[in-house]
Design goal:
With about 160 residues, the chain is α+β, with helices and mostly antiparallel strands. It has helices at about 15-25, 65-80, 120-130, 145-150; strands spanning about 1-10, 30-35, 40-45, 55-65, 95-100, 105, 110-115, 155. Strands 1, 2, 3, 4, 5 and 8 form a six-stranded antiparallel sheet that branches. It has a two-stranded antiparallel sheet with strand order 6-7.
Length: about 160
């Protein structure tokens, strides 16, 4: 089993409901166990145009799936929730990102792990710290240090 962390986000069509539904779908992934989920947080959108605030969380999983198989499963869940990929960083019904996959570093055309922008996003780091406060990333960076240097983003726990 590999311990991994998944970022969840939504700012359309009942965002908290989208996250709850996504967590149910994640529980149904083969050879995968949902270990825990952070609290839900509200954050200001990052991206183009006027958008509603996001609801974000981080899920902790144990999986026997390979990284790309897990990515395929998560993208299928996004599709089931009406995800459209028309505008980069645009509003979305559901966004599921593999933040960490064990201690692996992955750099492929489809997947980069650790997530390349997680150190800049308090809506990822705060819920991740709720689940694993002593976490150290594959590059040796400590989560607590990253969190101290992360810019604020109107983040608050729901």
């Amino acid at each position: 089993m590999t311990r991994c962390f998944i970022g969840l986000g939504s700012n359309l069509e009942d965002p908290a409901g989208q996250l709850r539904s996504a967590l149910s779908a994640i529980k149904a992934l083969p050879r995968t166990t949902l270990v825990n989920c952070s609290s839900f947080y509200s954050s200001a959108p990052i991206g183009p145009g006027e958008q509603p605030d996001y609801v974000n969380a981080v899920a902790e999983l144990d999986t026997q799936l390979e990284p790309l198989a897990l990515l395929d499963g998560l993208q299928a869940i996004e599709q089931q929730h009406g995800r459209e990929r028309s505008v980069r960083w645009g509003a979305r019904t559901l966004d599921l990102d593999i933040l960490l996959f064990g201690s692996e570093t992955i750099d492929s055309p489809r997947l980069t792990v650790p997530h390349p922008r997680m150190a800049e996003r308090n809506f990822v780091l705060e819920p991740l710290a709720e689940l694993a406060p002593a976490l150290e990333l594959p590059d040796g960076n400590k989560l607590a240090v990253l969190l101290q240097g992360c810019p604020p983003n109107r983040l608050h726990k729901l």
